[in-house]
Amino acid sequence: MNTNITLDNHKTRGHLACIFTIIVWGTTFISTKVLLRSFSPVEILFIRFVIGYAALWVAYPKHLRITDKKQEIYFAAAGLCGVTLYYLFENIALTYTLASNVGVVVSIAPFFTAILGFLLLKEEKPHIRFFIGFGIALAGICLISFNSKTEFSINPLGDLLAIGAAILWAFYSIITKKLSSFGYNMIQTTRRIFFYGLLFMFPFLFIMDFHITLEPFMNCTNVLNFIFLGIGACALCFVTWNYAVRHLGTVKTSVYIYGVPVITAITSALVLHEAITVTTICGIVLTLVGLFLSEKRK
């Protein structure tokens, strides 16, 4: 009885962790938009993860002792897929295709996660309701992204990079599920992932537009936005997301990604005073219905 209660508590916390994470991730575009006035995408990416890495050391200043050196491969793979390559693919895709395209395509990550979870982790075969929910949620996300002010445009390279980003996030979810089975502290696990993410990011700094000067940091707005992205969206949210994966599984956690465009649309209206059209409202409703169907088995 007590075991069941404990499991239910962990699952409830897992769902709350997912909700918190997508709320924060859905609002990060505002901070990124502000920072893009003074920094390049790769500069923002690197600085926010450096801040996140430092914040995790402050939060839990204990060295992670690996019991099996082979486990290091999983930490490195998680850092490469979920930090370095995912964000680089997404940022580069934005230079070749529309932001709305990227937003929609990246949102198919739960589909790849479900397939990979079944094939690699031998998780339960995705139920028909998952695929129905996926279709409904994707239709809603399309309505949110391609509103009356946005033209639809197919850009093969950019869209393929966005698909690559979705697949990379699916692999990251699978790897973090494996990492959770090792039983390490979640903050230490996330910090180790960030370490490898930053390590693999270094070569790209020399071939991309990366040149940091002190002048932009004299702007208080830039500093506050970096703190939000580094501590909130990176350090805190990666911990809560990894916690959710540990207790809910890869598929149940990944479907919450459908909610990010919903939060983005609502935040745009509240903060940037962008109009919410009837099309957007319909998209939000469809996305939430799809999320519910994908999440619930019974």
From TrEMBL:
Pfam families: EamA (PF00892). Keywords: Cell membrane, Membrane, Transmembrane, Transmembrane helix. This is Permease of the drug/metabolite transporter (DMT) superfamily. It is a multi-pass membrane protein. It is found in: Cell membrane. Residues 13-145, 157-293 form the EamA domain. The chain crosses the membrane at residues 16-36, 42-60, 72-89, 101-121, 128-146, 152-172, 193-212, 224-243, 255-272, 278-294. The keyword Cell membrane applies. The keyword Transmembrane helix applies. Belongs to the EamA transporter family. It comes from Anaerosporobacter mobilis DSM 15930. One of its GO terms (cellular component) is plasma membrane.
